């Protein structure tokens, strides 16, 4: 099962990890999720950060690969995340939001490529104009995600 590593401006990575663990707190496997956050300080040394990111990826990868979710390309966290990309080993997706992360956790047993695609779809579906009810944005897909999570328990 692929690991998920969040690399984002402080405190976003940790906040997303905490939020996801809160949402899935009733899932008995929640404590075993291979989910790590790497918060990037405003004055972070890029060389140190790259080394730390490589260490975290190595610690989390059990051979199934790692999905790296980052906040935005062009900034330090996104640039470091992009340098971690290795086809078939490390997939990187920018624009992380909570729906993206939750979707990735639902499909964490998928292949790495499928996991990246599910994460991007979840992130896109999680963006909507104010006033649009969640049930109006593809509830069948969300119900599939919930059923999949229940099957994993």
Major sheet: arrangement of strands: 2-1-3-4
Looking at the structure, what is the overall shape? globular
**Structural Rg:** 15 Å
CATH architecture identity: 3-Layer(aba) Sandwich
Count structural domains.
1
Mean pLDDT: 90
In whole angstroms, how far apart are the ends? 15 Å
* Structure annotation, total helices: 6
Helix vs. strand class: alpha/beta
The count of DSSP E runs of length 2 or more, i.e. the number of strands, is 4
CATH class label: Alpha Beta
The proportion of strand residues reads 15-25%
Order of helices and strands: EHEHEHEHHH
In CATH, the homologous superfamily goes by the name Phosphotransferase system, mannose-type IIA component
Describe this structure as you would to a colleague.
48% of the residues lie in helices and 15% in strands. By secondary structure, it is α/β, with parallel strands linked by helices. The protein has one domain (3-115, 135-152): Rossmann fold (3-Layer(aba) Sandwich), CATH 3.40.50. The chain has a 4-stranded parallel beta sheet with strand order 2-1-3-4, sandwiched between helices. The longest helix has 15 residues, at 46-60. The chain is globular, with a radius of gyration of 15 Å. The protein starts with a strand and ends with a helix.
